[in-house]
Write a structure and sequence with these properties.
This protein is mainly alpha-helical and 152 residues long. It contains 5 helices and no strands.
């Protein structure tokens, strides 16, 4: 009959003889960079999965108009703002304010930072509009008919 003490000591000895060399090899491989590519790929897959889950949650919680309708309204208003030369100042200002509000709404839907709510006017406001349109195009939302970099 075996003593429990001998069984425990035997298990400890076997685990030391097996686990210590395995842990040494694994540590050496990790420090030598043998797993860098696979660890990087695993991290990238994990980040992509997290971003996908966030996007799906955002789509499920979406309230109000869908993004496609907001973009269609943005395109329509952009054409109206471009053809405002013969309209009154009140109509021009109304079109620009409506365009700015739709830009801000699209930015909030896509988590793009904007400064359209700030008290800016004139050239600063126009520069912010152009910057936001470029950010939207970078996110895959084309407000204009031509793509970024294409000649007018």
């Amino acid at each position: 009959m075996m003593d429990k003490y001998q069984v425990v000591l035997g298990a400890i000895a076997v685990s030391i003889m097996v686990l210590v060399p395995v842990l040494c090899v694994l540590s050496y491989d990790l420090l030598a960079g043998r797993w860098d590519r696979s660890i990087g790929a695993w991290r990238e897959r994990r980040h992509e999965a997290r971003d996908h889950r966030r996007s799906v949650r955002a789509l499920r919680r979406q309230a109000g108009l869908p993004l496609e309708e907001v973009v269609a309204n943005l395109r329509r208003l952009r054409l109206a703002v471009g053809a405002d030369a013969r309209r009154s100042a009140a109509q021009q200002m109304g079109n620009r304010l409506a365009y700015d509000r739709l830009l801000a709404q699209a930015c909030e839907m896509l988590d793009i930072e904007h400064e359209l709510s700030a008290e800016t006017a004139g050239m600063e406001r126009d520069i912010e509009r152009v910057r936001i349109e470029a950010e939207l195009e970078g996110a895959g939302v084309y407000v204009t008919d031509r793509h970024f970099g294409q000649a007018a």
